[in-house]
Specification:
This protein is an alpha/beta fold. It is 52% helix and 19% strand. The chain contains six helices and five strands. It has helices at 13-29, 43-52, 59-81, 96-106, 121-127, 130-137; strands at 4-8, 32-39, 87-93, 111-114, 142-144. Strands 3-2-1-4-5 form a five-stranded parallel sheet, with helices on both faces. Strand 1, helix 1 (13-29) and strand 2 (32-39) form a beta-alpha-beta unit.
């Protein structure tokens, strides 16, 4: 049914639950599993810090990128341990919701799976959550776990 399933993970418990669900769906459908971790780039913050200490330029984004890479690779390793053979891991910088939606379109994903943060209704209204933004902007089916 789904040729490719995208699961967005961030190292949280909710992300792990999404990965578990995606693995189950992958096994049921024989899909390729794509694991994506998105790190939010802080270039404006880094630019501000660099005015105070030029040696710190880029260190924040580098650390976040390294963390995202480790989360994606850990998810891939876990999926393989669960018997998933067709799995690839990716990590990208950018706005999480926008990056997930763009990635799903670029890779012709049949289903996007992601965790819910469990924000209260007032926080979700004021801030918006990644899951809410993805479900609102994606033209692909989205499963929020």
């Amino acid at each position: 049914m789904f040729e490719r399933i995208l699961v967005a993970v961030d190292g949280s418990e909710s992300g792990q639950e999404a990965l578990e669900m995606a693995i189950g769906l992958q096994k049921a459908h024989g899909s390729e599993l794509l694991i994506l971790t998105v790190f939010r780039q802080h270039s404006m913050w880094t630019a501000s810090v660099s005015m105070v200490n030029p040696e710190l330029t880029g260190s924040t984004d580098s650390a976040l990128e390294e963390y995202a890479k480790s989360v994606a690779e850990k998810g891939k390793k876990y999926a393989k341990q669960q018997g998933v053979e067709k799995v690839r891991a990716f990590y990208m910088g950018g706005g999480p919701a926008r990056t997930i939606v763009k990635f799903s379109n670029d890779h012709d994903v049949g289903l996007v799976v992601l965790g819910s943060r469990g924000l209260s209704d007032s926080e979700r209204y004021l801030l918006g959550s990644v899951s809410h933004k993805v479900t609102s902007t994606s033209d692909r089916p989205v499963l929020v776990v």
